[in-house]
Amino acid sequence: MKATSTKFKTVDEYLSALPANTKGILKEVRKTIKQAAPQAEEMISYNMPAFKLFGGLIWYAAWKEHISLYPRSSRMEAFIKELSEYEGSKGTIKFPIDKPIPFDLISKIAKFRVKEILEEAKVKKK
Hints:
Largest sheet: 6 strands, antiparallel
Structural class: alpha+beta
Strand order of the largest sheet: 1-2-3-4-6-5
Helix content: 25-40%
């Protein structure tokens, strides 16, 4: 996706600005995360689609050649083997658009983040 000065208010508005092929992929990413984290609230954050659960859970975005997932976790080493074939940096995972998107892995990461956040919330309550 090109850099834009548009300030998106909803995920649907964000998706409507994408080319058809990318839009289809991001709709499936959205559906995958919703199924993995049904208690999370969908929103736009940092001008990209996101889900929150007691704060930020996971963000995702479309770029020209890849889809990015931003799980905001320092413990992604739990997925180190599965993520080894993808480019990324701390807190960012890039899935090339021209290759199959690993929706099962995205689901696992979202479920991991839900568990992580709920555990953190329990600790804060005590």
